[in-house]
């Protein structure tokens, strides 16, 4: 029992322990709120988590009345793990005795609590309330202990090149004053903190140069002289204070260390992000602040994140899974336990779903840095190549708590099974760890290889990163490729020949606007995903060729993991804004491929459950092909529109004949982007739709393949063609195509039908 639980919640720890059966919790909103306000640990924790979910932007029904008790009651359900030594050993020094599920009947929301205990003095569970403010001594002492332990014991967590200096740093004199320094004038290197934060909409001090055309007065000399800390936004002041408390005198802040109105300086510095973050001593993350004016610990509630000590007084157990089950004696492993009750999912709530982690630039910042200190709404978190810890679990979180965000850690550190977080399983993404030479500085890598990943796994890992990255937001849409350039450089080093960014491979650019040339055939197979009420779209101005996932603003995912190509690449090129930076901004591109091209096509409302639309070939298409296509159901994923509402549009570049570069690359930045909803496409006679087949995947589980057909998936791209004369028939060979979607045909494809579809060499921009 506990005095920090209401009578309803306390009832779950006394008398008969009923497992695997729903038990009524609070039957009204008023009762639940009253218990939360009076300090019940469970009710208060649930209330805080609900508040965090609302603040993180989860949708709420506009018609929902929060005070309506109808069908709003909550339920308890107890679950117990198998009490075996093997099960307990998975969690290291921690033992899980069971978990308690609370289900909200109206929203179907489920919140979990775990009963955890430890038998090791080296793995304490926080039992004393630390200071309530970020700079309190107890809070900073926890952070210092994490940093000290990591520096002393974790070989793989240090900077790749300790001699590296960013171009500029902020030198911290004291709590009240800092100044900008240029490191080329410095004799020695500096240990520095890299600061990850959200810019947001608030105005913050920026490093600027003189710009007479725009009437901008530069401040470089002024910032070199002195900066009053009080003039900086809240999150900057916090970062400076924490850095100083941890013993650092130098900090890198993007807005103050990159000249914000210099395209040349911005391009050069953004290309150095790999080095800036990989060589920082610590990445300090303002996770809770949606913009620079916000502070951390905004909802720090010690009654929530400090685990609650529980002394159950169960007298027996009843398994609700057995309809005729009878109460039995309590298992011996539940006798006299004194565990802690901890809310599950704090890492997801405080870090993964934080405002900072939804910022696109932070994806590579989090991957490239070796150590992170997260300043969240409720507490500090530590993450390095060896340890994930929080103030609640300062020696490291139980592995059972890591399952939910394991996929994210896989993306950041390695492709390993859950539960493997030793240094020997980390950092495989770092090019210096695969025994290669650091080509940017021409000397051997610091560490020997720990694990070589297969080509398929590296492809899968890049696809995971692209999927995660595409869900994140950008303040400036044209940053799409630059904000991923550090990771592109890292993958280039790891993967070696054929993936170089230093120049051209035998076939041309090895990195094609987010797609690697050696994997181009699979790299073209991506599709847009649903994201609530968000409309996926291709932004204007232009930022990537239509065949690249980077052309779309919105979440995307790889459409196939393995496939046989149905086409051949004739040529592929991209044109960069600055050819010195092969992973930077793109202003044009073209893809020539040869495959079977079907069309023109018409669209109408129809039987497709996937898109709600049916495609039909025009009369000039062979009648046998037309009959087969009309009889089939195609899954079409359009690149743009409201995916969840099945309301789609296409956009296209117009007036293309005047935008061809001297080497044949079409410059998208010189064209005008136009948009039309699919339902209005019939009114646009200049826009014609086509399908080009690119891959096929045979069903591995089919035991019978008929001579006239193949049981397989056929995939391809939906293309549009903008013609200059509305009455043209067939394919206008003088006009290029633009991608507008992705399709899949599941089922038997007859070879005779495919052979009737003509092969053509086409250009896609």
UniProtKB/TrEMBL annotation:
Transmembrane segments: none annotated. Pfam families: HET (PF06985). Residues 192-365 form the Heterokaryon incompatibility domain. Residues 424-449 are annotated as: Disordered. PANTHER family: DOMAIN PROTEIN, PUTATIVE-RELATED, HETEROKARYON INCOMPATIBILITY DOMAIN-CONTAINING PROTEIN. This is Heterokaryon incompatibility domain-containing protein. It comes from Neurospora crassa (strain ATCC 24698 / 74-OR23-1A / CBS 708.71 / DSM 1257 / FGSC 987).
